[in-house]
Design brief:
single chain; alpha+beta; Butyryl-CoA Dehydrogenase, subunit A, domain 2; Butyryl-CoA Dehydrogenase, subunit A, domain 3; 3 domains; 4-stranded mixed sheet; 4-stranded antiparallel sheet; 11 helices; binds flavin-adenine dinucleotide
């Protein structure tokens, strides 16, 4: 059976159009460098380019045009995302996980105000969920939202909030999509709201955290931040349900096409260049290739299911689990073959020749076990959804199943 995805004649014609536009709008020197935060000047270029792409409807091609998306088909979307990935075009790093929640739960007015800005690339947001004592057990969070007249007053502390505006720069997203307890007396999962907290407001402080995987995470402090009712997405007790729409996507429920793996590509090139003829090296290289190929196929299947509006259950978490465990296995394979060179950063003598990407991968594969639910949490979700757990759980609505995207 051939698992390769091949373009139809219509897709090939559209690809030519996309390539031409990229030729005209992406200078040859604008490429992702390394894997950590973008240098400040490249971030500025990426920010403007992202908006240009948004204005054309190609930033989120398959979202409806009435909210700032491109209204394009899944087939056209694949062509655009592939072309951008193939060229390693730097884009504004940021979170897209609030998009499905806004599409499913936002009022018409909220969609015009927030979803449109996000789909056109004008607005940037970070995910503001995890707290120092609430990670896997997210529902135990303590951040409080109190109603005061027409406003909500939010106080609390969050950690591991991802996002950066270029190396050494202050973090200035437009808003933080935030979970906060609205009614401490209400039952668990019915006691919180999903708020868009603007960072320009007094009382919001973002402090960079230096993690093993780089400097792109932040500690966030919110001190009596006053926001209007129109920044509450869903009802005051529905935040947990709204957050599930975000998390469903974060767990891989939208699939991932085309999941090109630069690390494995560079690694295989390196093995070929070294002319490694010994069997051990070849086995490790092939193991790493198979691991990433399986991830590609799971991602492709999920993408097809999402676009075909199939009901998803364990599929997203299966993708996430394979990615998290697979990356750790692949990092081990790479270290076995390339040895200590893979632990040397860019610029150090004898570095493996990957511009520091292999060294970064050794660190990020470990850190990557946590975002969006740990390895153990993905297993718990899969067990619940295939019915071998004490409790059962259904997938949350996504734009696809709710028939909101084209
Ligand atoms: C690089 C990075 C980026 C992140 N980005 C964001 C972001 O943008 N926004 C955001 O809100 N959060 C973000 N996070 C936070 C992430 O979601 C949490 O780290 C994750 O949910 C785990 O929470 P925790 O770190 O508190 O670990 P804990 O929940 O304390 O877990 C510790 C260990 O116990 C295990 N464990 C916990 N509960 C169970 C259980 N029931 N069964 C079995 N084992 C269990 C876990 O698997 C883990 O190994 C990020 C984290 C990282 C590392």
């Amino acid at each position: 059976m051939d698992f390769e995805y091949t373009y139809s004649p219509e897709q090939l014609a559209f690809k030519a159009e996309v390539e031409q536009w990229l030729d005209e709008n992406v200078p040859a020197d604008k490429r992702k460098v390394g894997a950590e935060e973008l240098p400040a000047d490249l971030f500025d270029w990426a920010r403007e380019f992202t908006k240009k792409l948004g204005a054309k409807g190609w930033l989120h091609p398959d979202y409806p045009t009435e909210y700032g998306g491109g209204g394009l088909s899944p087939e056209e979307t694949i062509v655009i995302t592939s072309a951008l990935e193939e060229r390693d075009v730097p884009m504004t790093p940021g979170n897209t996980l609030d998009l499905p929640a806004l599409a499913v739960w936002g009022t018409e007015e909220q969609k015009q105000k927030y979803l449109r800005g996000r789909l056109t690339g004008e607005l940037i947001s970070y995910q503001n969920f995890t707290e120092p004592n609430s990670g896997s057990d997210l529902a135990s969070l303590r951040t409080r939202a109190k109603k005061d007249g027409d406003e909500w007053v939010i106080t609390g502390e969050k950690v591991f909030v991802s996002g950066s505006h270029g190396q050494g720069r202050p973090r200035t997203p437009d808003y933080l999509f935030t979970l906060a307890i609205t009614d401490p007396d209400a039952p668990r999962h019915r006691n919180m709201g999903y708020f868009l907290v603007p960072t320009a407001d007094d009382g919001v402080t973002l402090q960079p955290q230096g993690l093993l995987g780089g400097n792109g995470q932040n500690q966030v402090y919110m001190d009596d931040v006053r926001i209007g009712e129109d920044r509450l997405i869903g009802g005051a007790g529905q935040g947990w349900q709204v957050a599930q729409t975000t998390l469903e996507h974060e767990h891989g429920g939208r699939g991932d096409l085309p999941p090109k793996n630069r690390i494995i590509g560079n690694f295989l090139d390196w093995v070929k260049a070294e002319d490694a003829a010994d069997e051990h090296t070849q086995h490790a290289a092939v193991d790493a290739f198979i691991d990433t190929e399986i991830l590609r196929l799971i991602g492709t299947r999920n993408h097809w299911m999402y676009e075909a509006k199939q009901e998803m259950s364990y599929h997203g978490s299966q993708n996430s689990l394979w990615r998290k465990e697979g990356n750790i296995r692949v990092a081990d394979d790479i270290r076995e073959v390339a040895g200590l060179k893979t632990l040397l950063a860019e610029g150090e003598p004898e570095e493996a020749g990957s511009k520091g990407e292999l060294e970064y991968f050794q660190r990020s594969s470990l850190v990557g076990a946590h975002p969006g639910g740990t390895i153990e949490v993905q297993k718990v979700i899969i067990a619940r959804r295939i019915g071998v757990s004490r409790t059962k759980e259904r997938a949350a609505p996504t734009p696809s199943t709710a028939k909101i995207t084209s």
